[in-house]
Write a structure and sequence with these properties.
The complex is a heterodimer of chains A (113) and B (110).
Chain A: E1 4-6, E2 10-13, E3 19-25, E4 31-38, E5 42-51, E6 54-57, E7 64-70, E8 73-78, E9 87-94, E10 103-104, E11 108-112
Chain B: E1 4-6, E2 11-14, E3 19-25, E4 32-38, E5 45-50, E6 54-58, E7 61-66, E8 71-76, E9 85-92, E10 98-100, E11 104-109
Parallel strand pairs in B: 2-11
Antiparallel strand pairs in B: 1-3, 3-8, 4-5, 4-9, 6-7, 7-8, 9-10, 9-11
The chains are: A mainly beta (113), B mainly beta (110).
């Protein structure tokens, strides 16, 4: 079974803090994704990576950056957290050998106060 | 912008009935289609994938795809209270990314 893990289930940070969210997958998947999910807005893609050190912007990259130094790990960075970044953050991975189905981690509910 | 639209919910069905969920997509080049189930406060879980026209059955779930009509559906037979969740339709056009619908919330009442 594919396993995607995220570093925290719940996180509370203060405005202006630098926040790191980490995601690890154990299936040797090439592709990794970061989404945020908000009521009424659905899943929105922040960034994705199709290889180590490669990244592409998704639909809402502003205020975020990412890092992929190892194939199994994909980090999302909030350089200076703001209250409008309070959300559920979901990491997913997929294989280029498959049919693009994505497998999600458990999510991190981030609250910025 | 590739659009995926799902029928607006919430959908309430009695236990044992069939729940029917619909999804349309705008990109005619789409190749892969997925249904995810998401329980409240949890992450999406892949429950069905379909790639060619027709029906695909897996237990109580049946996915139906009609590429000419750009339409994909999910039927849940013998609905159980444990099927109460939000169901997300996702579509891929072979560029690694998935486009997700907004989801349809299903409530199975006992």
């Amino acid at each position: 079974d594919v396993k995607v893990t995220q570093s925290s289930r719940y996180l509370v940070k203060r405005t202006g803090e630098k926040v790191f969210l980490e995601c690890v997958q154990d299936m040797d998947h090439e592709n990794m994704f970061w989404y945020r999910q908000d009521p009424g807005l659905g899943l929105r893609l922040i960034y994705f990576s199709y290889d180590v050190k490669m990244k592409e912007k998704g639909d809402i990259p502003e205020g975020y950056s990412v890092s992929r130094e190892k194939k199994e790990r994909f980090s999302l960075i909030l350089e200076s957290a703001s209250t409008n970044q309070t959300s559920m953050y979901l990491c997913a991975s997929s294989s280029i050998a498959g049919s693009y189905e994505q497998y999600f981690g458990p999510g991190t509910r981030l609250t910025v106060t | 912008q590739k659009e995926v639209e799902q029928n607006s919910g919430p959908l309430s069905v009695p236990e044992g009935a069939i729940a029917s969920l619909n999804c349309t997509y705008s990109d005619r080049g789409s190749q892969s289609f997925f249904w995810y189930r998401q329980y409240s406060g949890k992450s999406p879980e892949l429950i069905m994938s379909i790639y060619s026209n027709g029906d695909k059955e897996d237990g109580r779930f049946t996915a139906q795809l009609n590429k000419a009509s750009q339409y994909v559906s999910l039927l849940i037979r013998d609905s159980q209270p444990s099927d109460s969740a939000t169901y997300l339709c996702a579509v891929s056009s072979n560029d690694y990314k998935l486009s997700f619908g907004a989801g349809t919330t299903v409530t199975v009442r006992a």
